[in-house]
Amino acid sequence: MGVYDFFPEYEVVRNDTTCVNCRVCERQCANGVHSYHPEITPARLLADSTQCVDCQRCVLLCPTKSLKIVQSNNTYKLNNNWTKKEINEIITQASTGGVLLSSMGNPEPYPIYFDKITINASQVTNPSIDPLREPMETRVYLGSKPEKLTRGPDGKLQSNLGPHLALAMPMLFSAMSYGSISYNAHESLARASEELGIFYNTGEGGLHENFYRYGKNTIVQVASGRFGVHKDYLYAGAAIEIKMGQGAKPGIGGHLPGKKIVDDISRTRMTPEGSDAISPAPHHDIYSIEDLSQLVYSLKETTAYTKPVIVKIAAVHNVAAIASGIARSGADIIALDGFRGGTGAAPTRIRDNVGIPIELALAAVDTRLRQEGIRERVGIIAGGGIRSSADIVKAVALGADAVYLGTAALLALGCHLCRACQTGKCNWGIATQEPDLVKRLNPNVGYKRLVNLMRAWQHEIMEIMGGMGINSIESLKGNRLMLRGVGLNETELGVLGLKHAGE
Amino acid sequence: MVKLKPMSEGMVRIPSGCAISGMFSRNGKRFSGEDIIKSIEIMHDRSNGLGGGFAAYGIYPEFKEYYAFHIFFDDIEAQRRCEAFLDKHFEIAHSSEIPTRHVANITEQPLIWRYFVLPFTSHYISKMDEREYVAQCVFTINSDYKGCFVFSSGKNLGVFKGVGYPEDIARFYMLEDYYGYCFTAHGRYPTNTPGWWGGAHPFSLLDYTVIHNGEISSYDANRRAIEMYGYKCALLTDTEVIAYIIDYLHRKKGLTMQESAWVIAAPFWQTIERMPEQDRALHQYLRMAFSALLINGPFSIIVGFENGIMALNDRLKLRSMVVGEKDDMVYIASEESAIRIIAPVLDKIYAPMGGEPFIATLNGTEDGYGSI
């Protein structure tokens, strides 16, 4: 065994000729990578790459651009079976005896179906529409459609719609709990949602008392640990989400370490300070679909049928059948989370091996609900791997009403996907509770960046829709003829319900 | 359905450009098909000889209580099988070949017959209403009886259509000999060669006839929604899907024709927000309840129904359509010339706004059932 387990995968490279020893990097790195050494001549900063997570914080704050992080070219003898990753993981587990932990979404090279789908545009027989000159509607209502119409004695149609969520554009910020991410991150998401006319989601961590004012743009989550759930909380949000599963870790609960349960977080979660908050893998009052229906109606009764109820599930193999059951359970909206969805911490083996891609899950669910004639009973939100406005257009055309965005929102806030959230030492002030780090994320800047990103995507969606000759997002929903597969086999095309390009 | 030729209707989706025309007497006064022929003929250049057709309301007063089935047969054998089905499900009051004359440009015509029928009450009375039963029988023939296609199934109305220029089709069917209070006409300009008579417009189910100019970009969203309600879109044409949406909203859901139009070509949200409270609530409700049935992309359509006619453009008015009125007569056409040729002097003529339905009904009647 060596002095350390293995050579770092990423190396910190400093240009000593341009470095001015200002020591910003040293102050910025919560992982202690950089250290100043006056004892050596000339006095200079050194870096311990073994501690580096490649979060890019020091690189981007270095005033003289003297730093970069590079992938190490140190290598084991090449082996296509025993890759560096496999070897290093074994070494780590042999050293620690622990379960490997990871953060953010599955990074493994599975097919990305969004990248094998192309979008249609109008030519000749049908004019494209210029969104700068004509109205282009991206508003979405999420909820259950009525099965029967009723008229009053005057012959006028009576509104018998259940509660709906009105979104100015087909995007929502997905569940990220206060605890897993910081107060400032939550404030940024809440304020951006308010300005954009969309929603963010509390995740399983309760709702901080300061954020009740954003309630009409908040989805409050009820998960297996029931942390932070009480009547005022349920009433505070615009909708209630029951979290049955998460794409990054289907079948697995959650674990927020006691050291993150400090002050406000403890109060908000309603759990003791310093004690671990463990969300069980299943809801212990839901062992089957009929139990889920009871929880759906318990929440509806509690809130006097004024809030739509979302049921969020991870995309697993029989997702279509599960979704069909949920659509009949009284839920108003189903959220599907694909296996590329992010997480603050998950066992690596689970994250990288369990679940299925959102594109296939979404298509399968939409198809199944239509076959059973119950697609209109529920709204569908797709999440877990949505990276751009083009992905959103494709998801909607495959059958989603709207999409959940988690990773993309964090990237807008400064995240660089170093995938070390589980350490709690996020240098960007997002996935941390250390006050010095949290304050690095300025919510005044953070919310604005989220607004910028969503507005930019909204514009892009409008451009793409206009090109297709569609001026309302509801005419895109499930409009699979607007998509073609490129390089997909027949089974894949069959599941996605798409024709191949050229057909 | 008839045997499909390569690249014909139902195998590929064929976009079309078109000419449409319609005329309607609010007094229910019957007039000859001569006028509609003149009207559609002047728009000759908007068609390419690959489809033409007409709907005529009020032409069968002697059989007005009976459903008038117009059916294409590929051959005698297909006809025999279909007639066996009709015998089993309907009382047939009268049947005959539809009279046609030889027209040089019209070729490859199928056998074209009509049957005046009434369903056997005992077959449906405990299960569904009469119209639903008739509609299901039509679906069954069209999907399961190879070489047979029911292209007209309403009471006191008839569809006449085929492959050719509309004026040739009219002469072929001797349309000038029919007298009705409402006629619609369609000249088709498909971008492909459908070569099948059933694919021409109007598309019809029960009392509804639809003619359509345009290509809808929401096709698959609409198709997948309407198929969920039990319709089978076999032809892959926009017109078929529009006809089913109208049947669903008007007949099955009990919306008025006006309300149906508000679903199909819904006002923009920004318009709805400026409406007075009550209208706003209604439009918001219709858009939320039937979001999947919004029809997007360019279209002008003329819908004939039991006691009226409706003309509607897409919300952006991406297809031309004008409405003229003279006394009790209403004229609708793709081009003003098609109205002026038959009614040079009009009380008024105007182009309805995009998404603004024009509806005319027989005096003293309404445009819907008003009950659910």
Break the fold down into its secondary structure elements and pairings.
The complex is a heterodimer of chains A (503) and B (372).
Chain A: E1 10-14, H1 24-28, E2 34-37, E3 44-47, H2 57-61, E4 67-71, H3 84-96, E5 101-102, E6 117-119, E7 140-142, E8 150-151, E9 157-158, E10 165-167, E11 171-173, H4 183-196, E12 200-201, E13 218-222, H5 231-236, E14 239-243, E15 254-256, H6 263-269, E16 277-279, H7 289-302, E17 309-314, H8 319-327, E18 333-337, E19 346-347, H9 348-353, H10 358-371, E20 379-383, H11 389-398, E21 402-405, H12 407-413, H13 435-438, H14 443-468, E22 483-485, H15 490-496, E23 499-500
Parallel strand pairs in A: 11-21, 12-13, 13-14, 14-17, 17-18, 18-20, 20-21, 22-23
Antiparallel strand pairs in A: 1-4, 2-3, 5-19, 6-22, 7-10, 8-9, 15-16
Helix pairs in contact in A: 4-14, 8-10, 11-14
Chain B: E1 16-25, E2 31-32, H1 34-41, E3 52-57, E4 67-73, H2 76-89, E5 90-97, E6 111-119, H3 121-124, H4 130-144, E7 148-152, E8 157-162, H5 166-173, E9 179-180, E10 182-190, E11 203-205, E12 208-214, H6 219-228, H7 238-252, H8 257-264, H9 269-273, H10 277-289, E13 299-305, E14 308-313, E15 322-326, E16 329-333, H11 337-340, E17 348-350, E18 358-361
Model description:
Chain A is α/β, with parallel strands linked by helices. Helix content of chain A is 29%, strand content 16%. Chain A has helices at 24-28, 57-61, 84-96, 183-196, 231-236, 263-269, 289-302, 319-327, 348-353, 358-371, 389-398, 407-413, 435-438, 443-468, 490-496, and strands at residues 10-14, 34-37, 44-47, 67-71, 101-102, 117-119, 140-142, 150-151, 157-158, 165-167, 171-173, 200-201, 218-222, 239-243, 254-256, 277-279, 309-314, 333-337, 346-347, 379-383, 402-405, 483-485, 499-500. In chain A, strand 8 (150-151) and strand 9 (157-158) form a beta hairpin. Chain A starts with 9 loop residues before the first strand and ends with a strand. The mean pLDDT of chain A is 95. With 372 residues, chain B is of the alpha+beta class. Chain B has a single domain (16-215, 300-361), classed as Aminohydrolase, N-terminal nucleophile (Ntn) domain (Glutamine Phosphoribosylpyrophosphate, subunit 1, domain 1). Chain B has eleven helices and 18 strands. Chain B has helices spanning 34-41, 76-89, 121-124, 130-144, 166-173, 219-228, 238-252, 257-264, 269-273, 277-289, 337-340; strands at 16-25, 31-32, 52-57, 67-73, 90-97, 111-119, 148-152, 157-162, 179-180, 182-190, 203-205, 208-214, 299-305, 308-313, 322-326, 329-333, 348-350, 358-361. Chain B has a seven-stranded antiparallel sheet with strand order 8-3-10-1-16-15-17. Chain B is globular, with a radius of gyration of 19 Å. The two termini of chain B are 33 Å apart. The model of chain B has no long low-confidence stretch (mean pLDDT 91). The chains are: A alpha/beta (503), B alpha+beta (372). The A-B interface holds A 122, 125-127, 129, 134-135, 137, 139, 141, 143, 145-146, 148-151, 155-157, 159, 161, 164, 370, 373, 375-376, 468-472, 474-482 and B 13, 15-17, 191, 214-215, 217-222, 224-225, 227-230, 253-255, 259, 266, 268-270, 281-282, 285-292, 294-298, 315-316, 318, 370-372.
